Amino acid sequence: MARTSPGDKKQRILDAAVVEIARRGFHLTTVAMIARRAGVADGTIYLYFKNKEEVLVSLFDRALGRFIEEGRDRLAGFAGAEAKLRDIVERHLTLVGQDRDLAIITQVELRHSLHFMEELSRAQVGRYLEIIAEVLAEGRDEGIFRAGLDPVLGAKAIFGILDEMATDWVLSRRNTRLEGKAREVADLILGGVARCPRPEN
Amino acid sequence: MARTSPGDKKQRILDAAVVEIARRGFHLTTVAMIARRAGVADGTIYLYFKNKEEVLVSLFDRALGRFIEEGRDRLAGFAGAEAKLRDIVERHLTLVGQDRDLAIITQVELRHSLHFMEELSRAQVGRYLEIIAEVLAEGRDEGIFRAGLDPVLGAKAIFGILDEMATDWVLSRRNTRLEGKAREVADLILGGVARCPRPEN
Amino acid sequence: MARTSPGDKKQRILDAAVVEIARRGFHLTTVAMIARRAGVADGTIYLYFKNKEEVLVSLFDRALGRFIEEGRDRLAGFAGAEAKLRDIVERHLTLVGQDRDLAIITQVELRHSLHFMEELSRAQVGRYLEIIAEVLAEGRDEGIFRAGLDPVLGAKAIFGILDEMATDWVLSRRNTRLEGKAREVADLILGGVARCPRPEN
Amino acid sequence: MARTSPGDKKQRILDAAVVEIARRGFHLTTVAMIARRAGVADGTIYLYFKNKEEVLVSLFDRALGRFIEEGRDRLAGFAGAEAKLRDIVERHLTLVGQDRDLAIITQVELRHSLHFMEELSRAQVGRYLEIIAEVLAEGRDEGIFRAGLDPVLGAKAIFGILDEMATDWVLSRRNTRLEGKAREVADLILGGVARCPRPEN
DNA sequence: GATGAATGAGTATTCATTCAT
DNA sequence: CATGAATGAATACTCATTCAT
Q1: Which residue of A109, A171, C196, C199 has the lowest C-beta tally within 10 Å?
Q2: How far apart are CA C59 and CA C29, in angstroms?
Q3: Are B119 and B61 found together in one domain?
Q4: Do C189 and D193 touch (CB under 8 A)?
Q5: CA nearest D199: which of C132, C77, C82?
Q6: CA atoms lying within 13 Å on the CB side of residue A115
Q7: Are the Cβ atoms of D109 and C113 closer than 8 angstroms?
Q8: CB contact under 8 A, A157 and B154
């Protein structure tokens, strides 16, 4: 009778890492703490991860990977760029808002160093930005988004807004539901702050 | 003629810290490295700062403090919320874009830990968000911004966009000028991504 | 055949500490010096001891612990309080006189600070004083010691004499054998300095 | 108008040192702490003392020096070795018992290292032991002390008893008066623990 | 695969002491 | 004499990582 399958053990380590790192931060969390919570020996962690930092990276990859794959499929089901964009906003905020421990890690702990951020940027976030940019381009071509819109710049702006909302929610310890802001945020992204049409001046 | 005044020494330490920390990151930069570049003894740093972390905090305070004070005065000279908002965008991107070393620190190194970010958030960033929110409220009351606009949410969104632009610029090692995007970014903030007026659908 | 058992390693660290600390004193002895002589890594010491100071305490505990346990059994074999007292004197001086390095530690290095001495005093020395006091009470009840003798005060006085003899021997670098004084010291403790019976005056 | 005479300043430093070192121990007391309490600059201490350790030595010298000089004169006034011995006991305990801060220093802080103790031993304590030994020799020659008494050994024993009483008093935080034990201690020194004459056995 | 004892590199910080004023 | 800003040597301790079992 196998008590633990290998995959099980790897998941347990990641699950333990989320809790411990969210609680104390990456630098104050020791490998031994993660190992203890996961119920494995310190050395066992090195059978599944190259080093401590890779545990952190894997945490992010697991979360964002799921999010992106799932998101791509879902988007195909929506007709029209606006609906797609609204879905992106809602899913982003919902996902982050579901797991505060994970949110602490993605919004704070993951942004340790230049080296680290560059790595993340190149990896997953880039794919996410591309998806958003595609939606923007699609909307522009459909004529529902501005003709002069730069999809790449727009994607970064949208990501910046969503990221800031998430960080703000993590830092404020309030119990508001992050996804409650989805509609208003989407409206802002779509319509900007200015009145439309602008008053002639 | 005194070779060094006390203020001089403190500034030299901060200047040295920017360079060293930007180059290697906070954790890989030793106090000895900062001291050597500043031309002081290791112990001297502790005459001016409580510990290594306080050097990092002071770096940020010096930079953002200047920015906010200066900004408030400047804004008073602009008539109309739109002009003010455009000035905020331009100055934010210009400031960040002027000193890549400092930008690395504000966009990356400063975001070390939950504790750290909370501290920053409570302190200076909160004041910055308030200024933006005031401009948004002013514009809404003037009738040039949307009637239903939430100034606080809007301020966070704008900050998120600017912050993401800054981070993106730091991570991309390209030699583009960050402030070159100011106009386009401001347009996006003002008008959103959607065409205006929206096509009836 | 295991090269090192865990107990072995702990003992080796203690043995190394005696030599190094006796040679240079506690403060001038670094953890690295002890580790090197013990043939272990610096960090290994912290697997067995909480900190450097605990190594010193353990040294004392090991030595005095043995002495007290062994002594209690031995005393049971002696008939009469005088014989027991003479045995205490002889064993105390013999033990100290056997290992000059250990003696340096117990007579000098261990007396670092008020905190330290209080701790020692509460711990082992108190038990030793009790044993002596019991012997004095027994002798008093047997009628061979003075009727008015306060066993607790007497025990302290005796300990003071033995401790001073030990310290004096450590400080004088002569090669005299400390236990050679046992008989004379015991006579002094038993009979005091005054002639007996005192000349009427 | 001289606010402070040089001697004044040196005394103030020593007075400050007694308090600070008694409170925290020698190693945890910084030169800056002593300077602050004395109301002088850190560097000023080095005008009067070679280094921090010399402050500690001077403390002891000042105290024991006074004691010995005063004692020698006083002893001349007593007729008979027993009276002299009783006076030594009483004065030793009285002096220690008068100033707990100073007592902490002489009984605990001064016993730092082999080097330190050897220095003290050679210096003042040796003179004190000689005085006691002289009294013992005098008593022996007068016929009131045992004929076989070794004055040097006896002096050490007596010093050991007095020293242990003093240390015990420092470590027990009780408010007993140390000099209250003088008579009983002197009786013990004179008569030992055994009944006199001993019962034939 | 799993363990966990052992390793040893790595560094912030203190504080006695100096010396220019 | 006095100051106190500046110095810089010196070290206990942690913890990621390894590897013999």
Answers
A1: C199
A2: 15
A3: yes
A4: yes
A5: C82
A6: 9
A7: yes
A8: no
Is A85 found in the same domain as A14? no
Q: Find how far residue B86's CA is from the centre of its chain.
A: 16
Residue at B199 is within a domain: no
Kindly determine whether the C-beta of residue A41 is less than 7 Å away from any atom of nucleic acid strand E. Answer: yes
Q: Mark whether B and C touch (3+ CB pairs within 8 Å).
A: no
Are residue B135 and residue B66 in the same domain, yes or no?
Answer: yes
CA distances in angstroms from C75 to C67, C82, C90, C189, D140, listed in the order given: 12, 11, 12, 18, 34
Whether the Cβ atoms of residue C104 and residue C63 lie closer than 8 Å to each other? no
Number of A:B CB contacts under 8 A?
Answer: 173
Convert the pLDDT of each residue in A154-198 to its tens digit. 999 999 999 999 999 999 987 899 999 999 999 999 999 888 877
Which residue stretches of C77-149 are H helix? 81-98, 100-104, 114-120, 126-142
Q: Give alpha helix (H) positions in C39-80.
A: 42-48, 52-76
Range(s) of the domain holding residue C4: 1-49
Within 8 A by CB and 6+ apart from D9, the residues are: D38, D40, D44, D48
Verify if strand E has an atom below 7 Å from the CB of D98. no
pLDDT tens for B129-186 read: 999 999 999 999 999 999 999 999 999 999 999 999 999 999 998 789 999 999 999 9
CA distances from B174 to A114, B97, B100, B163 (A): 15, 12, 11, 17
